[in-house]
Amino acid sequence: GATLCDERNINDTINTNLTGMMNTCATVLPYMDKAQLGKGGLIVNVTSVVGLDPSPVFCAYSASKFGVIGFTRSLADPLYYTQNGVAVMAVCCGPTKMFVDRELTAFLSYGQPFVDRLRTAPCQSATICAKNIVKAIECAENGRIWIADKGGLE
């Protein structure tokens, strides 16, 4: 899915990262829901490790990713899963080359030196991250929150 980390534009960051994901889930669920003639299935929300721990540099981005994890955990409630047969899980990606190569801005200007250092910090390739997302999908555990970071999967 799309992701946006533009601390200068809070609305776009929240709308893209959180509201867009929620609307997508709301759109696909009726087609997957066994109670509505669907066949069940799996929803995988791809998010970020900054949704697990606060980020003083990327405040709006972090908040949007916390929201993704909260929404995922709520939707993965065993009661829903028993009723609709749709498993829901999230994969939290660590710093990934494709992401850090974008134009990134800090929420507060004095966080910008950290953003600049992030560009040269070790990070995983997009290919490795994608392979770990596939591994998580193969496990397909309802409610599971995976971490795909530093080339591994936890």
Automatic annotation (TrEMBL):
PROSITE patterns the record matches: ADH_SHORT (PS00061)
GO molecular function: oxidoreductase activity
Record carries keyword Oxidoreductase: yes
Keywords assigned: Oxidoreductase
Annotated InterPro entries: ADH-rel, NAD(P)-bd_dom_sf, Sc_DH/Rdtase_CS, SDR_fam
GO CC annotations on file: cytoplasm
Family: Belongs to the short-chain dehydrogenases/reductases (SDR) family.
Protein name, entry field: Alcohol dehydrogenase-related 31 kDa protein
Taxonomic lineage: Eukaryota, Metazoa, Ecdysozoa, Arthropoda, Hexapoda
Name of the gene this protein is made from: Adhr
